[in-house]
Write a structure and sequence with these properties.
The chain has 526 residues and is an alpha/beta fold. The strands form 6 sheets. It has a 7-stranded mixed sheet with strand order 8-5-4-3-2-1-26. It has a 7-stranded mixed sheet with strand order 9-10-11-12-14-24-25, covered by helices on one side. The structure holds zinc ion.
């Protein structure tokens, strides 16, 4: 058996590995690279293998950094099945179509910019410089209404001028086609994926539908087990179950484990502290007659936050002010959650389902869809809570809510997710920290968004406990307390220093761990 590591190798995005056994090639995840725009665009376009050689694909969970290139895989000739859980199938339908929409609008915008500067140069043949009015007229030619790009006109004009058209990584149609290759199964169900090769998926506790994939096969009359963890969740997270610890007896000897290491060198706070802190922030803000704004990822974090708020409301620990979930994608993802109570943990069944309650629906919560509704709640004067995306404040409705709330010291911005470097979310966290450390004295920091500067006076509260990834200690507990005997561990899905530190920690604790490099092959023979 050969395992090759293609993506999320010494980094956190672009998950993709391949198992080659007998004549079968099984792809583990097919994720999108994210981060610096140009660099990731190149990595996403260049597929390191020919998709036609892949027998079947195994998808650990719906997050785009694990699933985002499946439409490209299918477009380039993959003809097998995408094996995952049923919940992942449902979640991918929304997440991949949303991704296609982003690909299309990104490439549309790049084409618009190329054509516009070409037209500016044509009109300004004497290089005297165009007036803003002249530039505005040219830009408007390429738009429908004030903001929407006229894609058809742009493409046909670019052809006329012989300009290079940037194609989207994949289109809406490519994605609809790719979704028909998905094949969802319940957890703990063996499925044949190759010659004498079976996969069983177990709950990974990372996000609704996330799975660890146990692949068992026979090669040269010898039996092997490979476990791909995907992303591993925390113990006692809201709604979803804990990561699986007990695996079937006949599969407990693992020849190779491919394991994530996002927080391989870090330690999180306790989940219980989080409810307390959330309670304090809401109570203090409402007392000051302010509102709470929560930037949040549409899948997972939004539902976690709603769940915790519902609990706090039911226990009467915070005032029952209106809550708005203002994210069309978040609303779709909440429906996926609501449709899969079979994968909730016991606490969710006990707290809500046994009393006939839906954890995500209660009197004070409103899921807004239309732009008009979104604008209505922006202007609301009495205390309320808004949960909106994107999670790192890079795009979407959250920007407009920040515009209305960031300047007011009565309001609170609650940070519940990871804010990557170079994002607006990270800037807000860092600037606010500096301002607080200076005792809120002097000029408030300015935050630039949507073409304007806003003073950052709202309080920014950061909570780490919501993380969907186990930390070093939790991952080590998983390895030690599960019934698995593991021969070798390949550490992936972590920034280089996290992966290296985690491998070092594992080796110190009696495991045999290594960190592969991109494209590296590991051969395992018995
Ligand atoms: Zn994930």
């Amino acid at each position: 058996m050969i395992a090759t590591f293609y993506g999320a190798v010494r980094e956190v995005t672009g998950s993709m590995h391949m198992l080659s056994v007998n004549n079968d090639n099984i792809l583990l995840d097919c994720g999108m690279f994210q981060g610096r725009r140009r660099e990731s665009a190149l990595k996403n376009q260049n597929f390191p293998i020919d998709p036609k050689i892949v027998t079947n694909m195994v998808l650990s969970h719906a997050h785009i950094d694990h699933s985002g290139r499946i439409p490209l895989l299918v477009k380039n000739g993959f003809n097998g099945r995408v094996i995952c859980t049923r919940t992942t199938t449902d979640a991918c339908e929304h997440l991949l179509l949303d991704s296609a929409h982003i690909q299309e609008s990104d490439s549309g915008y790049l084409n618009y910019k190329t054509l516009r500067s070409h037209l500016f140069n044509l009109k300004d043949s004497k290089k005297t410089g165009l007036t803003n009015n002249e530039k505005g007229k040219i830009s408007q030619l390429l738009k429908k209404g004030r903001h929407k790009l006229d894609i058809q006109t742009i493409q046909s004009m670019m052809k006329d001028y012989n300009l290079d058209i940037v194609e989207p990584l994949y289109s809406y149609e490519d994605t609809i086609n790719a979704l028909s290759y998905f094949d969802g199964y319940p957890y703990n169900t063996p499925v044949t994926i190759g010659k004498e090769m079976i996969i069983t998926q177990f709950d990974a506790g990372h996000i609704l539908g996330s799975a660890m994939s146990l692949i068992s096969f026979t090669e040269n009359n010898k039996k092997y087990n490979v476990l791909y963890t995907g992303d591993i969740g925390r113990y006692d997270s809201p709604v979803i179950k804990n990561p699986t610890m007990n695996f079937p007896k006949d599969t407990e000897n693992i020849d190779l484990m491919i394991m994530e290491s996002t927080y391989g060198a870090r330690h999180h706070g306790l989940i219980d502290d989080l409810k307390e802190r959330m309670k304090t922030v809401i109570n203090e803000t409402v007392e000051n007659k302010g509102s709470v704004l929560i930037p949040s990822f549409a899948f997972g974090r939004t539902q976690d936050v709603v769940y915790v708020l519902h609990e706090l409301y039911n226990k009467g620990e915070v005032p029952r002010i209106p809550i708005y979930v203002d994210s069309p994608l978040g609303n779709k993802m909440t429906k996926v959650y609501a449709e899969h109570p079979e994968v909730y943990d016991k606490a969710t069944h006990k707290t809500f389902l046994e009393h006939g309650e839906n954890p995500f629906s209660f009197k004070e919560i409103e899921y807004t869809e239309s732009v008009e509704d979104s604008m209505r709640i922006m202007k609301e004067k009495t205390p309320h809570i808004i949960i909106s995306s994107s999670g790192m404040c890079e795009a979407g409705r959250i920007l407009h809510h920040l515009r209305y709330k960031i300047h007011n010291p009565k309001n609170a911005i609650l940070i519940v997710g990871f804010m990557a470097q170079h994002t607006l979310g990270r800037r807000i966290v860092d600037l606010s920290q500096e301002f607080e450390e200076a005792g809120r004295k002097g000029e408030p920091p300015q935050v630039k968004m949507l073409g304007k500067s806003y003073p950052l006076l709202a309080k920014v509260e950061k909570m780490n406990g919501f993380s969907a990834h186990a930390d070093q200690e939790e991952m080590t507990t998983f390895l030690k307390k599960s019934n698995l005997n593991i021969k070798k561990i390949a550490v992936v899905h972590g920034e280089e220093e996290q992966s290296l530190e985690f491998a070092r920690h594992l080796n110190e604790n009696g495991f045999d761990a290594m960190v592969p490099t991109v494209g590296e092959e590991i051969k395992i023979l018995k």
